[in-house]
Amino acid sequence: MPDDLINRRTDDVSVAVPTSMTMTERLLLANQERILAALVSDDADYYTRRSEILEEGYTAEYGDVFAAVEPELTRTECGLVWDLLDMFRILSTSIEELSPADRATLGEQRINRLRFRGFDLADELEGRLLSYVRYLVRGERWAEIGPRLEEIGDNGNSHHRCLPFYRLLLATYRPIIDARTAERGHSLDAYRLDLEQLTELAEVSFR
């Protein structure tokens, strides 16, 4: 019998939802739901229902309890965001410190290719990465990205996938920075790319 005829849930609630929890975990979460039911009278039924799911161990209903909890970003994925934001910070500063003549030679088209473009919210991974970028910006760890999110519009939603290009750009950028720090140490000058290096990076997307 078709699921829609019997009002059976067909949405996928299995993603990142635990298939089992210990009794201790269930008790702790259920007690929190009971407390919320007592504190938030307008939503008491909602929280009471969630506590019942946990107390009774209805594993197929755990999706209702964890609906607002996103899947984890791995440390590797978080580290990728840090690396990208650091890269764009260095690229931006390097461009700002070019002489007027070198900036004109680089050209606005290349400069735009070296700017952070946001992430695509329609893509599952990129959407999570964008959420993390927004979190980091709110914490002022990469505060300069905040105005850039506004420039992009839609709080950084690129509306097209950017991660493949970012990965390619990062793969080209890392050897350049490694060579500069090996030669100059971790001085500020080591993180100021010259016109030739910026041009090389800007041309990455055309290889």
From TrEMBL:
InterPro entries: UPF0304_YfbU, YfbU_alpha-helical_sf, YfbU_helix-hairpin_sf. Pfam families: YfbU (PF03887). This is YfbU family protein. It comes from Nocardia vermiculata. The lineage of its organism: Bacteria, Bacillati, Actinomycetota, Actinomycetes, Mycobacteriales.
